[in-house]
Amino acid sequence: MCVYVCVSSLRCSGPKLKSCMLSSVPVLSWLPRYSLRDNAIGDLISGISVGIMHLPQGMAYALLAAVPPVFGLYSSFYPILIYFIFGSSKHISVGKFFTIVMIGGVTERLAPDTNFMMYDNATNQSMVNVLARDTERVKVAAAVTFLSGLFQMLLGLVKFGFVVTYLSEPLVRGYTTGAAIHVIVSQLKYTFGISPKRHSGPFALIFVKVCYLVPETNIGTLVVSLVSIIGLVMVKELNTYLGKKLPVPIPVELLGIIIATVVSWQVNLEGKYGVEVVGEIPSGLQPPVMPTASLFGQVIGDAFALSVVGYGIAISLGRIFALKYGYKVDSNQELIALGLSNTIGGVFQCFAISCSMSRTMVQESTGGKTQVASALSAMVILVIMLWIGALFEELPKAVLAAIIYVNLQGMMKQFMDIPTLWKSNKVDMLVWVATLILTVLFNPDIGLAASIAFSMLTVIFRTQLPKYSLLGQVPETDIYRPVENYNQVNEIPGVVIFHSSATLYFANAEMYQDALAEKSGIDITKLISQKKKAEAKRLRKEKKEARKAKKDAKKNAQDWVRRRSGTEEIIPVLLDYYAGNVLGECLMDDPSMSCPVQEGEPDSSENEVEKGVATVEEGSKPDSTLPRAIILELSPVNFLDTVGVKTLRNVTGVIENLESGGFFSEKVSKACLFSSIHDAVLHCQTDRAKMNKDDEVKHTNTHGHDTCWLLAALF
């Protein structure tokens, strides 16, 4: 039957093939049902609006990747078309995002200016061979992008989409804020018109040389930067103010680069004032080129970090809009879609893509309802690359840096998370701040790994150092709350209800036991020690009785053989046989022979142990200050390791094993487990009333004090 099920599950059929194709290529599922009447107008307006945004942002973010601006336009074309086919989100706008600053760090590390110095005979000075440098940097960026896509596809194929759950919201927001600071610092050279040497590795962001080079600032470049920033901010604020009145937001970035290009061309900013411009923008598309495999070993860490961060941002935004519009985003399919976009994009010399919040908001607010809007935006970029791109060769790079600064406003506003988290959750605030510091100091790649490790440590510390408390009953209800936090709750006389805010496992097992001893007033360690001594004493007594019984059995067997055989010769032969079996079954052939242990007369000490009851020594009095019962409130316990099991066994004193590994036994049945605290309290109170009526009370106590019953309450 099992073999048949396995074979049938592997068998290919028409419906299974169709289902597999529709889930792997989502466009085949929704495009045939596309409604022109309902969606076409909104997608058209949205596509043109987002396409216009792609032009300035693509050129600007290319500066972050340290590659020529035209390659930013390529990254706004190929990956978008791939995501249109394989993506499962209807609303997100994929493309460039500021996390590509990670690529910029890699390209400048592996292809620094110092590797491309050449001697200029005309000026008798050394200068950078820009063409050779940019060609090498494009190869590095393509290799990082290609490898990042391979990682994403591999994770998607093995259904590893849940990896994003390890990126908590405070971690992601702290990380993106730290990456934004990297972006700002990387663009200072375009703002001030200076050329500081790029550093890589930990503490690379501390640009001391930037401060040294500030006196060499190009005034023309600085003026262009300030005017551009002020103009962009003003129009963006106007967009926000008139957002509901305008059918489409004012394309401030497009207007900015058009005006800046015209002014630069008319005034000759490069020639007269030394303002650096974009330079040559070739028309057309680049042929596909396989990435340089020899670079993979040097960029593998950066590629993996980029793949995880890019996916985390995209899936987070995708889920937000999916929840808003009532559809589902497949996390594993998103990994595959982004992986294919980056892998194929790497072949066409693009840099890694993710999802942009600003473009996604514009795409959604202007009426975009499907990924047709993204495909139309890609067509806008295609037109620009083929016929219009060369018109922007006189665009100052300072304007592109200003566009980046303004687009980072939202990231900088995330600093307001700190006071909010301080009030709501100080541990989350610590994760946010630590992630920011680690990202700034150790670069985005190392910073991400260190931030995830720190976040995991906070989870461990939260469970290792839980809050322990005693619960009391809210009067006339079955609700129980911590006594120290509520004035109106009442403790149950003679009953201790012990609560831990975390699960019980090896890291906090000892602290759990110590806290229980402190809260209940019982020395658990002493109790365990006395229990072990009593157990050892019982075992010695049993062994002594067993040796005595065996000796008696041999003597009785010897007497019986003598009477039956009348000779001493067979005694040694038979003694071993009968001595080994007389304890298991009595020799009923001879009524005159007495068995060492008569049937129906169990050993009294063993019976007491089985019942878990020890009679209080005559003349001793129970300690009335100790609780009659202890209830362990175990609702936070969602798993138990072996150390947790042993801890529960120790604190209860009579439990041998867990059910799945020894908790329940005949001595301690499931009757000790209750569905709520209130049920356990009622059981304790009822049982106590019965005990008070008895003339002779037996206590589960090995040290002469009052009995402590330990009951577990589970919600």
UniProtKB/TrEMBL annotation:
Swiss-Prot/TrEMBL keywords: Membrane, Transmembrane, Transmembrane helix
Family annotation (Gene3D superfamilies): STAS domain
Main location per the UniProt record: membrane
Gene Ontology MF: a single term: secondary active sulfate transmembrane transporter activity
Residue ranges of the region described as Disordered: 538-560, 594-621
Membrane topology: Multi-pass membrane protein
GO cellular component: membrane
PROSITE patterns for the chain: SLC26A, STAS
UniProt domain STAS: residue ranges: 485-651
Compartments, as annotated in UniProt: Membrane
Segments passing through the bilayer: 59-86, 140-167, 217-235, 247-267, 303-323, 335-354, 374-392, 436-461
Annotated PANTHER family: SULFATE TRANSPORTER (PTHR11814)
Protein name (Swiss-Prot/TrEMBL): STAS domain-containing protein
Gene of this entry: SLC26A6
